[in-house]
Write a structure and sequence with these properties.
The protein is of the alpha+beta class. It has 10 helices and 5 strands, in the order ααββααβααββαααα.
Length: 231
Amino acid sequence: MTSDALPLARAAAALVTEHDVTDVLAHLLADGQIAVGATAAGLLVRSVRGELEVLTATSHRASELEAYQAQQEAGPCADAIASGQPVFQSGADRLAERWPGLALMFADASYDAVQAHPLRWHGQVLGAINFFHTKPLAETPELLSIGQAFADMATLILLTPHEISGSDIATRTRQALMARTVVEQAKGVLAYQRGVDVEEAYDLLLERVRVDGVSLSATAADIVRHASRTE
């Protein structure tokens, strides 16, 4: 397991046991800060009243920056929440130009780059994680991917219930098994139609999922449904 995966593995392990949400998020934020090479990090969430509030931060300076963004609804974290998309900016001058209200705070903290990642759940944005860097850096797919992974995990931590009833567990398990049955049927259909073995048929199924951008179970159901119509 890579060093980047270990913090996410620890957070995932916490979710399947009794846990304190605030404590798990604080540790996740600190781990995310290390993973992206940041100096500090903060987490803003939108309250039930629709207001932005600071949930946790790894330093007092980061907490102050997050609080200002919450009050003014301006800054990288606030922008990520408003747009639902990652935000990145590097260079002291560009930071000041983009968020003039934060210019002095960025300068006092010696922050030269920021990245913010939204906490997204089925089209709804719950908040955002902000990472602060003391050195300019390049915006890379890897950096954004790692940052977003921590934001996604934070979303799961916030929304995972402490208790799930036995009937809910049984229902979810049954649904997963039913979906798996459809996938196996789709593999058989593709193997027959294309004259290939089941292993290659599964590869073809995964390729169609990738190209169409639809879930595996939905793609499999469509293949089976279309085959039944043409029989």
